[in-house]
Design brief:
It contains 18 helices and twelve strands. It has about 550 residues and is an alpha/beta fold. The chain is globular and about 75 Å long.
């Protein structure tokens, strides 16, 4: 892989995109892309985004007739809430903003927080959720549901055309949701992807085996089978899609064969030929074909098949013109872009609370431990999820000024700084959840006593469960937070309360080793995550342990 460094990989790639593409502007603080040419006043704006590594989705689809703006996260990591909020404000011209959101916990959460902030700005917004991946569909309806994958670009194209012709916000949203509800996908990998800076693939795939039901973030699949002819692979991918949609003879679809990053166009056309024949045998009409690598998983060798049930009104919008560079031939821009970066600079709010030495020691110790233990956290997450947890922790906590925490900041400012670091730099599910967790401490810690800490922890637990839906037993950070909160509720004295909370959080984190995940990306690998301690729960246990050590010192 061509890299300058793993840390600057995304920013360097965006620099090249902006330099080579007309009508795209980069806004480095906090990090989003928009059309250079603003929309007409009153037009609906479309904002999408997600983890980098899926190019040309999403940035390649900025342009008239498609997206107005895009929030790129780090590789396979959702953008953070502040990116989405600022980007939404930038693209809004009075007609409202539609968020196109893939069904991954971090994406859903950060876009949701952004819409809360937009309400405070009196900017109307709504969303379309893409959940097309049948590999994670469960008959009991439990778990996070179908992931959002290749159908995203088709929804973006159709909603973009509707917004371009002047449809109102509610109409664009209703149309997008109808198209999303009629879209399903499934993917296969012949070889896993390898992230920048890593020496190992996202999962091990022995020679002679293929992985069915993989995710676009490098997640392993739902089944591993011996390699087979392309004709049989197409059948294995397509039939679950047909079944999930309930497609019947005589219905019409957009048929999309998508490459995952390292699949040659000849292979994709071979697959499409098999798909067209398979659908013909089923009596399903291909109204429009689409073949290409539009939604990738870095350098994964593999492909996905997407079917979208359509009628004439949808096809009219699918056929409408767009100048998005990844849809037709892009217009070149020879001006070299500037180097880019992510994230806002933290500026403390004004408050009069004095510095607290034990809180300073608590948080400095915890931050330093998380930074030091990043390799262990990454290894845990690689075994249970997609391997980005440790990177997200570092992305946030490297922004925190440890010297200021130790020597200058008040207790409130410490938690404000850590919260801002997560919300503005980490992205993903962990960025949103840890950001909201620490924000409750910033809001509640007008005093550093047992009552204030208990209130903060209880509020943090409530906000996290509200946002993510996780409960005790789902193998998440909640498994450590909930027992710690119970211990604080039962305490009568600060030192004993924090000691009991630390013990309860550690026991809760350890218990996740025996759980099968029901939330987050670990839920996509099912029993494969059993036997691994949840890294989020472990970090929360360290948080309470550091508090207990500091108050006893």
């Amino acid at each position: 892989m061509f890299v300058n460094s793993a840390r600057t990989f995304v920013a360097d790639a965006i620099r090249g995109l902006v330099a080579s593409t007309a009508d795209i502007s980069w806004h480095p603080d906090p990090g989003f892309l928009t059309r250079e040419e603003p929309l007409a006043a009153g037009q609906v704006a479309l904002l999408s985004g997600g983890g980098s590594g899926h190019e040309p989705m999403h940035a390649g689809f900025i342009g008239a007739g498609m997206l107005t703006g895009v929030c790129p996260g780090l590789v396979f990591t959702s953008p953070n809430a502040l990116q989405v909020h600022e980007a939404s404000k930038a693209v809004s011209v009075g007609g409202g903003v539609v968020h196109i959101v893939k069904n991954y916990t971090g994406d859903v959460m950060n876009f949701s927080i952004a819409r809360e902030l937009l309400r405070e700005d009196d900017i109307e917004s709504d969303y379309v959720l893409i959940d097309d991946d049948v590999a994670t569909e469960r008959a009991d309806g439990d778990g996070p549901g179908r992931r959002g994958t290749a159908a995203t670009v088709i929804v973006e194209k159709i909603c973009g055309a509707a917004a371009e012709r002047g449809d109102a916000l509610a109409d664009v949203v209703a149309l997008g949701r109808r198209v999303a509800a009629n879209s399903r996908s499934m993917a296969v990998a012949l070889r896993a992807c390898t992230a920048p800076g890593s020496n190992e693939p996202s999962f091990d795939l022995p020679d002679g085996k293929i992985e069915l039901g993989i995710g676009i973030h490098g997640e392993r699949g739902t089944s591993r089978v011996p390699d087979m002819p392309a004709q049989d692979i197409v059948a294995a991918l397509t039939q679950p899609v047909i079944d999930s949609l309930g497609l019947e003879r005589g219905e019409s679809v957009i048929a999309f064969v998508n490459g995952l990053g390292a699949t040659h166009p000849m292979e994709l056309h071979l697959l499409y030929g098999e798909l067209a024949e398979y659908l013909s045998d089923k009596g399903i009409k291909v109204a429009r074909p689409l073949v290409g690598s539009l939604v990738t998983a870095l350098n994964m060798a593999g492909a996905s098949i997407t079917l979208v049930r359509v009628d004439d009104s949808v096809l009219e919008l699918f056929d409408a013109p767009t100048d998005a560079p990844a849809w037709p031939t892009p217009v070149q821009n020879t001006v070299l872009g500037e180097r880019t970066g992510f994230g806002p600079t933290f500026t403390p709010s004004e408050n009069d609370s004095p510095r607290s030495e034990w809180v300073s020691d608590w948080m400095a110790s915890w931050v330093q431990r998380v930074l030091t233990e990043e390799p262990a956290l990454t290894d845990l997450d690689r075994r249970a999820g997609d391997g980005d947890f440790g990177t997200n922790m570092v992305s946030a906590l490297e922004q925190v000024d440890l010297a200021q925490i130790r020597e200058t900041y008040s207790a409130q400012t410490i938690f404000e700084a850590v919260s801002a670091a997560y919300l503005g730099h980490a992205g993903g599910t962990s960025g949103a959840l840890f950001g909201i967790w620490f924000r409750q401490f910033y809001l509640a810690l007008h005093a550093e006593d047992l009552a204030a800490i208990t209130t903060a922890a209880r509020s943090g637990l409530e906000r996290i469960t509200e946002l993510g839906g996780a409960r005790v037993g789902d193998k998440t950070m909640v498994d450590a937070i909930a027992p710690a909160v119970d211990a604080l509720d039962n305490a009568t004295e600060l030192r004993a309360g924090l000691t009991d909370a630390a013990r309860a959080a550690a026991d809760g984190a350890q218990s996740t080793e025996d759980f099968t995940a029901n939330r987050g990306r670990a839920s996509y690998v099912g029993d494969a995550a059993r036997g691994v301690v949840d890294p989020g729960a472990l970090v929360i246990a360290w948080f309470f342990e550091a508090a207990a050590d500091a108050v006893r010192a």
